[in-house]
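Allow me, if you will, to draw on your knowledge of protein folds for a short while. I have a record of one protein: its chain in single-letter code and its fold written as discrete structure tokens. I should value your view on which stretches of the chain appear to form regular backbone elements. Thank you for your consideration; the sequence and its tokens are set out here:
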Amino acid sequence: MTTQRGEGEFGGFEAGAWLFVRLVLGVTWVQGSLDKVGQAGWTQPPLGRSVAGFLQGAIAKSTAGPHPEVPHWYHTLVEQLFLPNAALFGQLVAFSELLVGVALVLGLLTRVAALAGLTMNLAFLWAGTTSTNPPMLLLGLAVLCFGERAGRIGLDRWLLPWFARHTTPATRRQLRAVVFVLGFLVVAALAMAVTDPNIELWAGLAALSAIVTIAVTWRHRAG
């Protein structure tokens, strides 16, 4: 009984610690969104002006050399995808920051919200903007990777059990697979940024990792 009580107390403390992390991230995202939602250049005409200026600054930081402040591949992505659709991305960033922040504060789909926040942090970092992005990235990664109880003091306390009761095991496995793939893509993008512009090195290391993983898995199942 003493051990169970201790585990319960620790579980409550852990949930409270995650609540603090969620509030720090959520309030920061909401504050950032309030500077954009309803503001000219973001969600009001001239749409896309603020994003276009930000992206032009990112292009200027993509200098020659093996490890520029803005990676070469991101420079290409900005020119070919982001800038031509600056109006759309301006609204997307503004409202995404608001939704992610509110979800984290309320503990609603907490790890999904953390993943969405990570994606934005990475996009800002690759654009050459440091600011609060590095610590937010680390906190978001912690929630995503280790925050099983991150939404316990929040709406996930009721939403996740309800979801488990009203979905089949196969559906839950598929959703976990989707989250895994998205997380893997984030990790792959980080690895690509480290090896940029040597894409051959990235591809070779990825292939080696896949071969070793398949071999170890096959041997384990065979044994």
